[in-house]
């Protein structure tokens, strides 16, 4: 059967690509949402009873015009815009056949089931490659398809610990509140989704040149270790494991957060001149000439003496007073904003990072924009995160040419 992907859109980078998305929760859906934002047709496959787990991961939930909670949790909304939603019970032979037929007409399959779980359904790469020889198939798991941990379930929080990120994040052990901390968002899931997006785009480029599909094995642990970046390189070069520094910097002082009279700021004085301006603005010019603090190496050496003095100095002014005076003097600084302040920030507003899309039950849904800016094929925000099974009938009718009687029987039998 020929791929029935619609003709490429002139305004969409991936308008010629169809993605069959069997993933749920965050890493896989984040990847497929990236592809949808870039114009790909993404068909999200969910189980008939409940769908993607994140639909129920609330509160908060999206509210309708009367202020009542809908069935869509905010967590689900963050990673599923632009997709079409189908419910299929893949544990049944009929459901498996539907997935095979859809895979036949797709360019990419994404899944995040446990290792070998889809093999028993005939929906693994080796099986689907038989019906679509140039298929690109991306599996996302906690630990990958090989190795002693391959069959373990992988969760972002656990991987942040195992992969070293939490050893670098958090206040120093000897200070109050010290100890390892996870990041405030599921950063390993998100980065795995981003790496998976890159891998799929590379595989599509290879397929278009050579006509060959391929299998992509993505693991959260692999991604977490890779994204240690300079810290990983520091360890491999020196043999010394880096320690936590909280919001401070191991090699620059002052380069950290401070509490103001009403909030918090970050001061990043990367050279002596910037440090001198900082303490002058703070009304303590004598600190600029103090022999113990006159150069950055000396400030690093005496940080435990200097930082408490600077902290007392910063508390004397408000966040905005510090930002205004430091920016005008050319001292790198910034506020630590809560999310209300983030979405009210003039730069965030100017860049249109909050978007509203029409929603069938809530009227509209607020979403965060994709940060990719492309001149010839810009991101188009057309469809909100779909309701559970919203497109089951239309997709089966349009793509697989099922008639109304067959669709009705599949619904009665609980297959869709």
Automatic annotation (TrEMBL):
Keyword field contains Transferase: yes
Pfam families in the cross-refs: CoA_transf_3
Keywords carried by this UniProt record: Transferase
Listed name of the protein: CoA transferase
Organism whose genome encodes this protein: Undibacterium macrobrachii
């Amino acid at each position: 059967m020929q791929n029935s992907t619609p003709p490429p859109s002139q305004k969409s980078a991936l308008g010629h690509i169809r993605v069959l998305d069997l993933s749920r929760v965050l890493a896989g859906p984040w990847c497929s949402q990236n592809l949808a934002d870039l114009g790909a047709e993404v068909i999200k496959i969910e189980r008939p009873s409940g769908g993607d787990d994140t639909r129920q991961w609330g509160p908060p939930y999206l509210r309708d015009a009367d202020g009542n909670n809908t069935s869509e949790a905010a967590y689900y909304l963050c990673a599923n815009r632009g997709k079409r939603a189908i419910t299929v019970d893949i544990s049944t032979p009929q459901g498996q056949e539907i997935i095979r037929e859809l895979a036949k007409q797709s360019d990419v399959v994404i899944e995040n089931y446990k290792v070998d779980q889809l093999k028993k359904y005939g929906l693994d790469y080796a099986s689907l490659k038989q019906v679509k020889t140039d298929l690109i198939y991306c599996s996302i798991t906690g630990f990958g398809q090989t190795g002693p941990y391959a069959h373990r379930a992988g969760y972002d929080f656990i991987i942040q610990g195992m992969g070293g990120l939490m050893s670098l994040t958090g206040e120093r052990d000897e200070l109050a509140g010290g100890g390892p901390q996870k990041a405030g968002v599921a950063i390993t899931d998100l980065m795995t989704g981003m790496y998976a997006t890159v891998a799929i785009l590379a595989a599509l480029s290879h397929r278009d040149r050579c006509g060959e599909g391929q299998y992509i094995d993505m693991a959260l642990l692999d991604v977490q270790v890779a994204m240690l970046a300079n810290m990983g390189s520091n360890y491999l070069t020196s043999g010394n494991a880096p320690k936590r520094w909280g919001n401070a910097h191991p090699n620059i002082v002052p380069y950290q957060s401070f509490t103001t009279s009403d909030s918090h700021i970050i001061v990043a004085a990367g050279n002596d001149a910037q440090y001198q301006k900082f303490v002058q603005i703070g009304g303590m010019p004598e600190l600029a000439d103090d022999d113990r603090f006159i150069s950055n190496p000396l400030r690093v050496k005496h940080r435990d003496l200097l930082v408490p003095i600077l902290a007392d100095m910063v508390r004397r002014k408000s966040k905005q007073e510090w930002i205004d005076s430091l920016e005008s003097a050319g001292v790198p600084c910034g506020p630590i904003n809560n999310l209300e302040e983030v979405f009210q920030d003039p730069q965030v507003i100017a860049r249109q990072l909050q978007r509203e899309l029409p929603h069938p039950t809530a009227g509209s849904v607020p979403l965060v924009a994709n940060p990719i800016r492309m001149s010839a094929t810009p991101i188009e925000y057309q469809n909100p995160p779909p309701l559970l099974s919203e497109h089951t009938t239309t997709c089966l009718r349009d793509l697989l040419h099922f008639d109304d009687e067959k669709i009705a029987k599949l619904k009665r039998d609980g297959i869709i």
